[in-house]
């Protein structure tokens, strides 16, 4: 039989705000940071007690600047953290000190509960209780040990099928009904953890995204016990997944009848398998099956700082953007504009290989096409919305001006790299708004403006890189000619490639940066 909650996994939109709240305010320990096991370009943070004991773990999938989800039936809606009953006053005072709104305390099933929301809007409850034993307490300045969070108290599940959800938790995860209110049945495990099953009939359905709870994981002693539950689930017709090796535990996933995703995870091997206790959470790990891409992935994953450490302060600008600072910074700043279907991190591996000491600023295009990010609309593969190009070019010019003011960007040494659709927008903006971009690298760019504006690009240096068998390269010579005619210093190179980028592009970029003295790395 299982032993209560192992961990609860949520989705956050802003990694820095998340760390500041769960470490800086709640006082949890960051015990692990890793690339996602399904998608290693997605950062996964695990918080818990001093050793990351099962039952203390709150974990987050980081969808940096991702779309918000919607809380509704078929999804957990709240997390509850156990504290000493006499510590409610301490946390109420601490919330006031951190300017975090609260409600309560109020009684829920005979326990005092203080409610607040994390930066993504997820409801976090402090529950004064002695029903669960404390794990391996983590000491932190500002939070006396008696007032520290003890472990997870429980979670709330929203369901349109409360009877079936309750039966599922009882049959497969060892929970039993121990209390009931008007719309909530409290299910309790032998460990004392609880799951509140709330009847959400008539409520709207859930939608995945930031600010939601992805799943609840329950504890199992080991793989044989997980396998036995898996066999029972499959025999009953449930759509359970095969065993997943998550390095720190092994697990299966299944959706309960009401639609919420549940996981059954082993207690071991645990968080200490690859870090000593005093080093937990200090190293970014990449899952073993993505080892060949580890260098690239570490550049693409969003960076953050611990509370009281120096951090990069982001400002509100017209485009979503992400900054990567290498350990040994000292090169130029490279501003990156992705191609169709990419995002702000897509060009970071290429840029980091070409200029290892450069600070990278990846920017996300605001247009979309069938869910893929772009920089402006198109009506057909080679027919573009001219008004939208002009509008987005002006917006990107405003972004550059804002970055100069907010981040101290030096345009004389900053290099802009645009690939495909990103290169097209960059070239169009240079023609429509000259004198902003002084150094540009255009990868597989082509002519997109129907009418060539009269512009002075005499202060611009451009590396123009085409693929010798690029199927979209027919109009590249026309763009190159326009840039030259406008007075730009254009270096044109062809690499053995199609429309994709590769090692040849990295090498020509590296050489051009050195030759133009913008790449001192």
TrEMBL record:
Where do the VOC domain residues begin and end? 4-129, 151-267
Instruction: Quote the protein name from its UniProt record.
Output: VOC family protein
């Amino acid at each position: 039989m299982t032993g209560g909650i192992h961990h609860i996994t949520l989705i956050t939109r802003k990694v820095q705000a998340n760390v500041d709240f769960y470490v800086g305010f709640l006082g949890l320990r960051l015990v692990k940071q890793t690339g996602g096991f399904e998608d290693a370009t997605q950062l996964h943070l695990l918080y818990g007690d001093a050793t990351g004991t099962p039952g203390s773990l709150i974990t987050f999938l980081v969808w940096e600047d991702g779309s918000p989800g919607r809380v509704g039936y078929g999804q957990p809606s709240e997390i509850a953290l156990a504290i000493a009953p006499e510590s409610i006053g301490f946390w109420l005072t601490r919330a006031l000190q951190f300017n975090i709104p609260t409600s309560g305390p109020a009684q829920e099933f005979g326990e005092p509960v203080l409610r607040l929301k994390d930066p993504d809007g997820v409801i976090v409850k402090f529950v004064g209780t002695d029903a669960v034993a404390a794990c391996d307490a983590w000491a932190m300045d500002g939070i006396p040990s008696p007032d520290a969070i003890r472990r997870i108290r429980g979670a709330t599940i929203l369901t349109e099928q409360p009877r079936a959800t309750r039966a599922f938790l009882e049959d497969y995860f060892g929970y039993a009904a121990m209390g009931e209110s008007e719309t909530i049945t409290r299910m309790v495990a032998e460990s004392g953890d609880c799951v509140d099953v709330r009847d959400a009939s008539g409520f709207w359905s859930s939608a995945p995204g930031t600010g939601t709870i992805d799943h609840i994981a329950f504890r199992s002693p080991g793989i044989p016990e997980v396998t036995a539950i898996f066999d029972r689930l499959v025999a009953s017709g449930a759509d359970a997944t095969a065993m997943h090796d998550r390095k720190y535990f092994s697990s299966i996933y299944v959706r309960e009848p009401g639609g919420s995703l549940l996981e059954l995870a082993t207690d071991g091997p645990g968080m200490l398998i690859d870090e000593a206790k005093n080093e937990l959470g200090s190293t970014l790990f990449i899952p073993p099956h993505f080892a060949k891409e580890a260098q690239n992935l570490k550049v693409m994953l969003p960076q953050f700082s611990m509370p009281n450490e120096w951090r990069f302060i982001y400002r509100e600008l017209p485009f979503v953007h992400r900054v990567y600072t290498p350990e040994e910074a000292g090169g130029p700043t490279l501003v990156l504009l992705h191609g169709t279907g990419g995002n702000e991190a897509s060009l970071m591996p290429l840029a980091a290989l070409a200029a290892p000491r450069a600070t990278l600023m990846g920017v996300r295009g605001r247009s979309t096409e069938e869910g893929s990010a772009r920089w402006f609309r198109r009506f057909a593969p080679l027919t573009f919305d001219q008004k939208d190009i002009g509008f987005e070019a002006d917006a990107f010019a405003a972004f550059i001006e804002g970055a100069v003011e907010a981040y101290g960007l030096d345009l004389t040494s900053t290099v802009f790299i645009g690939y495909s659709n990103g290169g097209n927008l960059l070239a169009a903006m240079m023609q429509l708004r000259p004198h902003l971009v002084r150094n540009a690298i255009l990868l597989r760019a082509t002519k997109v403006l129907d009418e060539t504006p009269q512009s002075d690009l005499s202060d611009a240096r451009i590396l123009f890189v085409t693929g010798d068998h690029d199927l979209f390269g027919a109009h590249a010579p026309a763009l190159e000619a326009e840039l030259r005619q406008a007075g730009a210093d254009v270096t044109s190179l062809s690499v053995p490639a199609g429309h994709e980028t590769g090692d040849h592009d990295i090498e020509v970029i590296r050489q051009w940066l050195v030759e133009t003295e913008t790449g001192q790395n």
